[in-house]
Amino acid sequence: MNEGLVVFVRAIIGFFSLLIFTKILGKEQISQLTFFDYILGITIGSVAATLTTDLSSRAWPHWIGLITWAALGYLMQIITLKWRYAAKYIEGEPTIVIMNGKIMEDALKKVKYTTAEILELLRNKEVFNLNEVDYAIIEPNGEISILKKPEYLPLTPKDMKIKVKPSGIATEMIYEGVVIEENLRQLNKDTKWLLKELKKHGVKDPSEVFLLTLDPGGNVYIDKYEDRIKKVTDVGDYKGPY
User: Fold this and answer.
1) Beta strand pairing status for 102-103 and 95-99?
2) Cystine design at 212: which of 76, 173, 178, 208 (Cβ 3.0–4.6 Å)?
């Protein structure tokens, strides 16, 4: 019983210790995860691995550790849902790193990012020129959100006062040469309609089609097995002298 109590206490100490260490390391270390998700995931995984592979010790102390971590995780979820101030310190909060087109150096130090890393994140968002950026925010999961300057925002049909039909999600009509009858019925289509569409694209039989989809706007996409592309673009690296 004393051993289980020691595991329980050590689990609590480890939980809050890793929480503090993760805050010190900064948001860059966790990418898609919040601080809490990161430490909870790696620790429960580590304890579970030890429970599985460490045959030199009894299993039940490890189970106490897992249960303790899971219980603490659930408790933290309740706390962050009920108290916003607690969520601010446990999960973190967004940090503005570019404001009015200017890089906030102190904010970069706070989130432990270098200028080069911010530029990389911007490129990942298809922004290659800082002149385009009005605001940039590092989110609690380490991702960057960008608001471009008005003159660099893309025009939308609403800006042009153009009415557009909703596109929605396309439905598969043919998948790898097989007609999906159920999807045809759901969209009030039949085989006759399908064959007519295939004929428009010079296809004689559904078996020639790799994929055919139909969206709510009535747009048909067809990809045949033989696309007849004469020269395929190669974007790979140099393959060497062979």
Assistant:
1) antiparallel
2) 173
Between residues 148 and 44, the one the model is more confident about: 148
> Taking a C-beta distance cutoff of 8 angstroms, is the pair 27, 112 a contact?
yes
Amino acid at 193: W
Strand partners, 146: 136
Helix, strand, coil content of the chain in percent (nearest 5): 50, 15, 35
**Strands of 209-214's sheet in order across:** 178-179, 171-175, 209-214, 220-224
Nearest to 36 by CA among 21, 55, 51: 21
Could you report how far apart the first and last alpha carbons of the chain are, in Å? 68
Does residue 128 sit in helix, strand or coil? coil
* Beta carbons of 30 and 139 less than 8 angstroms apart: no
Contacts of 39 (CB under 8 A, 6+ apart): 15, 18, 19, 22
In one letter, which amino acid is 237? Answer: D
What is the CA 96 to chain-centroid distance, rounded?
A: 21
Cβ atoms of 22 and 38 within 8 Å: the answer is yes
Kindly state the DSSP code that residue 236 receives in the 8-state scheme.
S
For 170-227, write each residue's pLDDT tens digit.
899 999 899 999 999 998 999 999 999 999 888 889 999 999 998 888 888 998 887 6
